[in-house]
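If you are new to this repository, start here. Below is one unmodified record pulled from the training split, so you can see the exact layout before writing a loader.
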Amino acid sequence: MRVVRAKSAGFCWGVRRAVDAAAAFAREAAGAPVWTDGPLIHNSREVARLAALGVRTCADPAALPAGSRLLVRAHGVPPARRAWLGSLPLALRDATCPKVTFIQKLCARAAEEGRAVLILGDPDHAEVVGLLGHAGERGRVVTGPADVAALPDPGAPVALFSQSTQEPALFEATAEAVRARWPDALVRNTVCDATRARQGELAALAEACGAIVVVGSPESANTQRLAALAARLRPTVVVDRAEALDPAAFAGVRAVGLTAGASTPDDLIAEVETRLASF
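And here is the target side for that same chain:
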């Protein structure tokens, strides 16, 4: 079976930056553990690889011994938590994706201007929790146009931003609903370029292939969103390891498209590609 691999599959720039920062911190630690405030990224395979280098996930930074090394996760944190982490007797570094930091600043500025800040996103996702923290009491999460229609009028100017890994088409539909209610709303599409590229390649994969495979962890929101979009175009299989692929799922398929979430390591994608090519 022929495998057509998406050009954008695998680590985005922000994830690569966070992983490299963790590995560098571990080298400097010379054998002492390095901790992350929650999972650094949403990929169990890569988190396990980093654990082998001495980078471990921490559930309670306050319990760490003084002088321990701690890394802020790529998704970012609310400002109150960032300040609390900074108050601990730890060597702290920040691996927040710069794209996320940019959105955080937009949310904070809009709130300071007195705007009601709407954030299109998954309410429980770590990035969205951080964005809400920067918007303060003026922040609200919406998941689409229906949520916009159900909102009470805030009695203030409105701003709309997006979680960096949302679907661009969903943002545009949500923005249309926001403008219909509040014509003077500040609307800024903050879906990152890596997400646009990854989702944008799906149509070409679907045209060239009879099925699509998406590689990534179940906890990765951008992977699951990518899979949902792919499933609208072609039969789609989502896996987090090559061994999970069932040849029977590709009966009659001559070419398969291969893509992956933004936190999926290249070696895992290569393993999946090799197994698919053997079918």
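Two things worth knowing about this chain: The chain has three domains: 2-10+194-278, 13-97, 99-193. The chain is about 45% helix and 20% strand.
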